[in-house]
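Hello,

Our lab assistant flagged a job as stuck in the queue for most of the afternoon. It eventually completed. Since we weren't sure the result was trustworthy after the delay, we are filing this so someone can double-check. Below is the sequence as submitted and the structure that was eventually returned. Let us know if re-running is recommended.
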Amino acid sequence: NRTIGEAVDDANLKIKIIEKYAKSKSGIFLDVNTTVKLGKVLLTGIVEAHETRVEAVRLVWEINAVKEVVNEIEVGNSQNIKDYSNDLWISTQIRTKTLSELGLDYITYNFETINGKVHVLGVAKDINESKKVIDVIRSIKGVKEIANHIIIRS
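-- returned structure --
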């Protein structure tokens, strides 16, 4: 539900974030995931220190095109293989079910799962579309919590 121009702007913004993270010496590039929709930046991942979490947000805000930053970065020990595999399985199930039940219009949504908490960011044409996506997430076994960052276009 983004125009081509908006998608290009978001891609450019993500590239700028990646460049900043790659230059950082605190491991942000490896530990923090970024999703960008309409200038809204969702940060997820697990870092070892609170200072790293703060730096990740600060670096994003240094970029002029950023309209909003949603900081969902957790501080703690990184995931073990079992937890990572479970989260990957949950995200895969969500993507598959969203595509099969709701159709191709929904492939523009991003789903990131960390310790059973699903972070969703996308652009919905209305509240009903957003509810459909959330209902799919709720139906997946293993989902403990949903962080809904869907942008409603109205």
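-- support follow-up --
The delay was a queue issue, not a problem with the job. The result is valid. The beta strands are 32-37, 40-47, 68-75, 110-114, 117-121, 123-124, 145-148, 151-152. The first strand starts at residue 32 and ends at 37.
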